[in-house]
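This section describes the prediction task in plain terms. A model, or a person checking by hand, is given the sequence of a single protein chain and must write out its three-dimensional structure as a string of tokens. No templates, partner chains or ligands are provided. The sample shown here is typical of the held-out split.
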Amino acid sequence: MINEIGHKMAETFLEMGQAIELFYRLADRDSMHHHNTNICLARSLNIAEAIEGESGVRAGKLCAFAPEGDMLKVKDNPAVSPMGWYFHVAATLPIMWENGEIKDLVFDPTLFDAPVDANQWRKKIKADFNGLAGGSLDQSLSVDHPEYRQLTVHFKEKGARQKMYEDGFQPLRRKRRRVFASALADTYFQKPREITRKRFGSSWELVRRS
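The expected answer:
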């Protein structure tokens, strides 16, 4: 976007088609091949910064905290979360639907084939609505409720993120990781579009409906 005096302006949202195309590009980035699901914080921050770098739209993040004494898990794909998670975090991005409504959608290529709404994302990892906390990229997140894990998810600088990747290196055992279908993408692709819905990328494949 260019303003009246010719300066480039920051975009404030993407349309759904633009967001899906961006998602496809990000899903096959090198950082996604480093498939240790326990470093979601580092991965989500890298994705959020890549979103801003490629689109000009400032991304945020959404964190889900497990109930006290329990863990978050992806029940129908246990290989993604074999030990369970105290928390899971993903990047978010404001996206405008065709009716003009703008919502923050979740970018989580570890789990899905396209952007999803917060409700589908939390249900997939068995998270409660009251266990969610969202904010800006550099904001620390926590849930002030005794029924949920009393943790604070802090921002990680690039150097710290890289160390997390190196210390937790875990290559894919399969050629591609398995991901679930975005319900919003299901709706979007019910009409003819200029882009084609992908069933797989270089590092992922869509295996079942979500």
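For orientation: The chain is about 25% helix and 20% strand.
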